[in-house]
Amino acid sequence: MEDVDGTKYDIKLEGNVTRDKILKVFEMMDLMNIEEGTKTTNLDTIGAKIWNIIDKYFPMGKFTSNEILEKYEDEYNEPIKLSVVSTYLSRFNSKGKIDRSKSGRAWAYQIVRLTQKPQQTRKL
Questions:
Q1: What number does CATH give the domain 42-111?
Q2: Are 2 and 34 in contact (CB under 8 A)?
Q3: Which of the residues 43, 67, 98, 108 could staple to 62 if both were Cys, CB 3.0 to 4.6 A apart?
């Protein structure tokens, strides 16, 4: 990973890695202003293009794979199969970049935004 100042970080997790521990790493990255590939991402892969669509058009709201497909074809003037979009959305979900929930018969997705929890004050 690389921060906005160009400093590179190599984080390694070993042992019993849980979802909570991964989220703590993401929180640390957020606090340090590390953005994985967002500033220097080349749109030369399908995954990068799909992520660009998500980040550009759905930064806060929910979206479906069909909406991503439509925006992708409009943005890049190239066809893409719904199964390809769904595969990438599933990968992003596995990596913890987006959340997925059932909405009727389809899946609804939303970008995972990490927020810093307020620190509790302790009385001595």
A1: 1.10.10.10
A2: yes
A3: 108
Name the residue with tokens 């991402």: 41
Per-residue pLDDT of 3-12, as tens digits, reads: 656 677 777 7
CA angle 18, 26, 12 (to 5 degrees): 65
Phi (first) and psi of residue 70, to 5 degrees? -60, -45
Q: Give the chain's length.
A: 124
More confident residue, 123 or 110: 110
Which amino acid would we find at residue 106? A
Tokens describing residue 99: 């959340």
- Domains of the chain, by residue range, sit at 1-40, 42-111
